[in-house]
Every structure is written in C-alpha cells, then in structure tokens.
From TrEMBL:
Its main location: plastid. This is Acyl-[acyl-carrier-protein] hydrolase. InterPro entries: Acyl-ACP_TE_C (IPR049427), Acyl-ACP_thioesterase_NHD (IPR002864), FATA/B (IPR045023), HotDog_dom_sf (IPR029069). It is found in: Plastid, Chloroplast.
C-alpha cells in the first residue's frame, strides 16, 4: 500500500553545520529557498554570512506523530536575504511560528486572545499583555541561539552558568484587546551600558496595525548557582552583538526614568498580607515568574479603581528574587501622598490617578518589587 505524504511544513532557525540541500518543498517558503539554492552554491566566498537550516515535518499514513528532521541548507548571506521583498521575508517562519522582519532584527509573533485571557471588562488583562511580551521575547531568543532547553540563554551563557533577570520594565497601554482579537507582537533588543541589555516590544492589532501597547525593559545576567550579578563575558557579548537593533519602542521623552519612592508602613494607604507563592508560580529558573508579581501588586488596589479605571502605564523595578518558601505583603498608596505631586513628565499622557506600590517579604520587610501605575477612566480611554 502506498502511503500518502502530507504537505511539508517549513520552519526556520539558526544553526551551526552546513551542507547542500536539494529537498523540494511544497509551500511558498520552500519554493523561496529552492530558488535561492541554485544561486547560493558559491556563497562561501561572501562576507557577513548568517547560517540557517530548515525544520521539515511530515506525517505518513496513519502515523500519529509528526516526524521532524533537519534539512541542511547552503549558506544564505545577509546580503542575499536582505535583498528580498517583505513578502519573502514574511515566509521566514521560525520553529515557534514567529517570523523575522526589518532585516531580521525584529521578531514578530501572532497571538489570538483566548477566553481565559480576558478579565471582568471582557478585555485582556495587563497580565495577559505581559505574558505576550515574555513569550515573544523567549521565542526570539530561541530562534537566534536555539536555546529552547535553557530558557532563552545563549550557548556561551550556558557555558558560564548565566541566566537573564529583569531589573526594570515599563509598559504603556493604548487599549485592551477583546476575546477573539488577533494581535502581533514585535520585539528586539540592544545593549544597555556595559552589563545590561534593553529589550523593547510593540503590540499591534494584526489587521489594522493600530498600536495596542508598547514596552521597554532592562535585563542583566546572574549566575544560576550563586544567584549573584555577573558582568557580560566577552564571548557572550559577541553572541549578542549581531542581533542588536538600535530602536526605541517608547519615545525617549516618555520613558520613565524617575525614581520610584519607597513605601513604608506610615505612608502606605492599603495593605494585603499573607500572599504565598506556590510551586506553580515558579518558572524554569526556580524563582517567581515576573508576571505573577503584577497580580500580587494589584491585590492591594481599591476595588473601585480596578472596576472603573484602566491602567495605561506601569513601571516595575525588581529588587530581589522570590521563591516558594516566602510570605509576601502588598502595599499601595496614591503617589501624591508620597511625593506631593505627580512625577509624570509626559505632557500627552497625564494620568487621572497615579499610585506607588511595594511588594515585600512579610517577615524581614525586604523589598521585592517597587512599582508605579497610572490610570484613566474607562470611557476616557477610547
């Protein structure tokens, strides 16, 4: 009996070893690479090579599992790929079904808003948006360094026992998507000072291209065993540099560089105690996932604010890690009580409400996260 072969799905990712491939593929991405094959046989003499390989999956007959094999390609250089149209660029699909755009410096991921990702307002929550950002950033890292098992680290980072941690993130929200909406998230990164990296994101409606949210963040490296801050080793820096992209998601004048003042028992207006991280709150680096902190921070917000207002800006400063054995308390206060006047410098984004938040350990009062949030009435946001 002759078995039927399903159409071949092609994905793109960076790899290391190369040889010629004459595998005929049936979709547009495959046709593109087949066309380029004949003109790339002598590509070894060209400069600025970027190495790629195809992931080809096919299912035969009644097989219940897709068989995935690596098909090696001839060299495809930056010049060759950069000369193709945007239509061709969109066919460069990665293992995670994202794609590279803007000369392969920007990574784009598409998300459908699921029913379990919307809140009481029937729109996405800030946690949902943060999860979109995190997932896109990790998929980007894997597509650059094939680091799936190591949660976004490069090969040299793994060799030096280093992992990424966030120190600060700012998110500006223009609107919140609804259940069933399709959004696209663009992300890229650049170096920030001697020992940091900045990662930015823009979320758009996939069809109208309307901006939904923008975010910027800073990251550093720590030793995964000692949990101590580390400088960026030169071999790691050399892995990062080819992918760095000097572009800002949030305009310079709107980036929140202001110090977030510390709350105390005397200045805080609202408290929520007894927050206990569970095992399912941990990520693969054995500490609390950053998105979990947002939910806990908002536990001490007044219910009427959560019901009648929408968060339009949030800045988080991460001070230390949190583990499953910790007990936490959340504190919130109007920023005017702490600093007298609002310290928002953006003329175009003056909030109607602004709050300072603190998440700390309950026993020794050590700080975990400082935050500042800005809010507008729901009907005023549209």
């Amino acid at each position: 009996m002759t078995s039927m072969v399903a159409p071949i799905n092609v994905g793109l990712q960076f790899r290391g070893n190369w040889c010629n491939a004459k595998k005929k593929v049936e979709d547009k991405a495959g046709e593109f690479f087949q066309q380029r094959f004949n003109s790339s046989c002598h590509a070894n003499a060209l400069k600025k090579k970027r190495r790629f390989s195809l992931l080809v999956s096919s299912s035969r007959g009644n097989d219940t599992m897709n068989r995935i094999t690596h098909v090696q390609l001839a060299h495809l250089t930056t010049e060759m790929l950069g000369s193709e149209s945007e239509a061709h660029a969109s066919s460069l699909v990665t293992f995670f079904r994202g794609s590279f755009v803007e000369d392969r410096f920007v990574y784009r991921q598409i998300f459908f808003v699921r029913s379990y990702e919307v809140g009481p307002h029937k729109t996405t929550t800030i946690q949902t948006l943060m999860n979109f950002l995190q997932e896109t950033g990790l998929n980007h890292a894997f597509s650059c360094w094939e680091s799936k098992d190591n949660f976004g680290v490069t090969h040299e980072m793994e060799h030096h026992k280093l992992i990424w941690v966030t120190t600060r993130i700012q998110v500006q929200v223009e609107k919140y998507s609804k259940w069933g909406d399709e959004v696209e998230v663009d992300t890229w990164f650049d170096t920030a000072g001697r020992n940091g990296v900045r990662r930015d994101w823009i979320i758009r409606d996939h069809y109208t291209k309307e901006i939904i949210a923008k975010a910027t963040s800073t990251w550093v490296m720590i030793n995964r065993e000692t949990r101590r801050l580390s400088k960026i080793p030169e071999p790691v820096r050399q892995e990062l540099v080819p992918f760095c992209f000097n572009k800002l998601a949030i305009a310079t004048e709107e980036i929140d560089h202001q110090k977030i003042h510390k709350l105390t028992d005397a200045t805080a207006e609202r408290f929520h105690n007894g927050i206990v991280p569970g095992w399912n709150d941990m990520d693969v680096n054995q500490h609390v996932n950053n998105v979990k902190y947002i939910k806990w921070i908002l536990e001490s917000m007044a219910e009427e604010v959560l019901k009648d207002y929408k968060m339009t800006n949030m800045t988080l400063e991460f001070r230390r890690e949190c583990t499953v054995s910790d007990y936490l308390e959340s504190m919130t206060c109007s920023s005017s009580k702490v600093i007298g006047v609002s310290n928002n410098n953006s003329v175009n984004r003056q909030p109607e409400l602004q709050y300072i938040h603190l998440l700390r350990l309950q026993n020794n009062k050590e700080e975990l996260v400082r935050a500042r949030t800005e809010w507008h009435l729901k009907q005023n946001q549209h």
